[in-house]
Amino acid sequence: MKTIDKSEITDNFLEILEQIQSEGEEVLVTEDSQPILKISPYQKSPTTAELFGELRGKVQYFEDLTQPTVEEWQES
């Protein structure tokens, strides 16, 4: 991860954004050597269908999933 001081980012902001976009590397912005901001490239999160699509129709439920399971977790 590249680190840059806050004072340097104002003069080179567009260049830094282009570099983040082209290289995909995150940039940590600091002030007085303390991190204040992290700039990272956008990453699309997968949808539920994309994550679990292969499992559709393959999962079997043997109990009612909407009922509480308090009886199974009695305190000792």
From TrEMBL:
InterPro entries: YefM-like_sf
Recorded superkingdom: Bacteria
SUPFAM superfamilies referenced in this protein's UniProt entry, alphabetically: YefM-like
Family: Belongs to the phD/YefM antitoxin family.
Protein name according to UniProt: Prevent-host-death protein
Source organism per UniProt: Phormidium yuhuli AB48
Phylogenetic classification of the source organism: Bacteria, Bacillati, Cyanobacteriota, Cyanophyceae, Oscillatoriophycideae
